[in-house]
Fold:
Amino acid sequence: MTLGNIESLAYSYPEFTLAAGVVGLLMAELLLPSKRILGDMALWIVVIASLFVGSSSLAGYHGSLFGGMVALDAFAAFFKILFCFAAAGTIWMTMGSRELEGQHPGEYYALLLACTVGMFYMA
Structure:
């Protein structure tokens, strides 16, 4: 079954979560004086997106979204979960990194989440 653009939005919560996280991290970097919380925020965003992937795969819909442009099945859900684990591992390993001290960590985490959104659509 192929869903149109409007009907497909109900199944795109993981991608929306990551995209909103990109914008949120960029705004938080501008507004927060302490940059240490940005890694935790990015990690929670990835965890919430992975929960949305799990709940949408358990919902039982299998088919195509956005007029056949995006597949939604167990294979795509497996790779989305795998990408979430990879993003969470990368965030976790770089949270205490000295290379990010004095830099703009929010931009790094936002770029990492944006890449994860792209991988979600490729899955």
Notes: The helical segments are 5-8, 13-31, 37-58, 74-94, 105-122.
